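User: Quick sanity check before I run a bigger batch. Here is a single chain. Can you write out its predicted 3D structure?
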Amino acid sequence: MGKIGCFREYINQIRTDVLPKSVINEYGYNRVGQYLLRQGDLQKLSVATENCLYGHEKASLDRVGIRSKFEPEKYLPSYVKYFDDTIITSLEKTIASSALNIYPTPLQVYGVTYETGSSNSLGVATIDLNGLKCAESGECVDSIRLDVLLNKIGFPCEIGSYYQFQEMIKSGKLGDWLTPRAIVQLGLSKIFIPNAIGETDPNSSNVILLKEKSSNKYDIVVRIDAEKNEYLLDSCGVESENVVTTGFLGMNEPLLEYLNIIKSRDARIDWELFSGFVSVAKDFCSRSCIDEAVTKSYISNPHKFDPNTFLRPSDYIRYYDSQAFADFSEYAIGKSKNYFDNILNSLGGVAFEAPFADKYSGFLNMCIDSKDCREFVQCVYDKTGMEI
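Assistant: Done. Predicted structure follows.
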């Protein structure tokens, strides 16, 4: 595999675990185990518009500064999304969002309750990806939403099929803006991992790209939303359709049609490239990787919660405890196993070559370098919303 040397080293180059933790870790819990925020803990910040980040359907998200408990004059930027659902469904959506730790660039989601006195709002918080700096140099990191970037390149704003994604790569235009690593991360984050674990809304507005300064290309891809999952449908007793969310030729492709395209070896598909993505995605969705990712989310959320500190423990604790996270993990593991078993059975003897692991005939100018990426820190604001 050329410069990479071996598959494990290749995977380590694709996985970019570089995002900082949220200041919300400094806060205590409510009676369920969610981080408890009160008035005074949050400072509303303006929404960054220069790259149209979080536009249209994301406009309802609140961009806030969360006050540091240890340095009260400092506020760290975050996005908070509140759920207009029952308590149980809100907790289940928070657990489903832990899937973001499965992706090539893990993003931790924090379950929060915002207490305003008259009522409480339940939701999730993530760090603001438009407010990152390089830890070493202090330089701001350029970020952009995928749909905005695709429009800038001249592509449709949504990647609606694997074939469309494949043709974007082969045109060479995607490689003008993204490094080979980012293209692999994009395929995993937009198509293969969502398909595997049963996500139902992997749209382009839910993907953020971070630029690498030396190459002036986007090098890191981050999924920012994973709450819509067949897991939630199953928990409500709703039978989900047997479809592949992003199919070969379109969205919500029937599974039988999807598998028949593989078996027929449709000439429009580059089967070596597809098989390569399958091999990498299968590794990211292995039992150990999924369990580790969901456990990481549990540890960053109610792991240290002690219900014995409350006079009246909540009846909803069991919907947000270790077993609840474990149930989601087992669901994602089983879902992905079925997905990859179906694909591999249909593929038969196609050779597997990890995408851009070496300069082979299909993509002569694309090869993933064994290059580390920068660690990031968050920008810091004061209570007036001015950056410190």
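Confidence is low (pLDDT under 50) at residues 50-59.

User: Great, the batch can go ahead then.
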